[in-house]
């Protein structure tokens, strides 16, 4: 149910959140996304005109136009000349993605494992990181790194590196207090929908630094699990790289024959 306070938030001039230095149109896009997700603008509802939104939030029509462009690219609204901008029907793939990830991420996000973050910062990808992540060399991504520890024994289970698209880097401020998968948090905060997750598992050897962090032998076998999360707009919004000592990783998968 939409509260009166939520409706009142839409009538207030646009205010920049503390510490958020993103452009004004992204600030407006974020607020409009939140309104759509909260049901203030339900599916099929028509948004106010560019002029009305500009007056309502105290911004230029150009800022409104750019904010609506972001919403369209994220698949949240559609625009048609003469008919305005309408909230789009959500895709039917979201629940399937969540179901798949709840299985594939069982080890990484199990209740008896906690993620201890030791570094958060923007990272320019060199050739080695670009190859490891499958992302473009020279691109900047928010990198969040740490160890997943067994709650009972304190033994490190894997090294985890998140790479989050720079457009959503502000999420880094709240990740130290967040528990669980990150992509649902990105969906909630930015109005995104993950529609595809690709996974690659590779055999690697632990270098000295990783071996020390994981309390394993240098040069010993490990499995590197890379997952890339793609949103409805076709953009990869997050890549995770989990490095597991071979003896601490198990992956189970069931395949069924489907009749043609």
From TrEMBL:
Q: The HTH gntR-type domain covers which part of the protein?
A: 22-90
Endoplasmic reticulum recorded as keyword:
no
One Gene Ontology molecular-function label: DNA-binding transcription factor activity
Q: Which domain of life is it from?
A: Bacteria
| Pfam families per UniProt | GntR, UTRA
* InterPro entries per UniProt: Bact_HTH_transcr_reg (IPR050679), Chorismate_lyase_/UTRA_dom_sf (IPR028978), Tscrpt_reg_HTH_GntR (IPR000524), UTRA (IPR011663), WH-like_DNA-bd_sf (IPR036388), WH_DNA-bd_sf (IPR036390)
Q: Name one GO biological process term.
A: negative regulation of DNA-templated transcription
Q: Which CDD domains match?
A: WHTH_GntR (cd07377)
What keywords were assigned to this record?
A: DNA-binding, Transcription, Transcription regulation
* UniProt key word DNA-binding: yes
Q: Which Gene3D superfamilies match?
A: Chorismate lyase-like, Winged helix-like DNA-binding domain superfamily/Winged helix DNA-binding domain
Name of the protein this chain belongs to: GntR family transcriptional regulator
Q: Which organism is it from?
A: Spongiibacter nanhainus
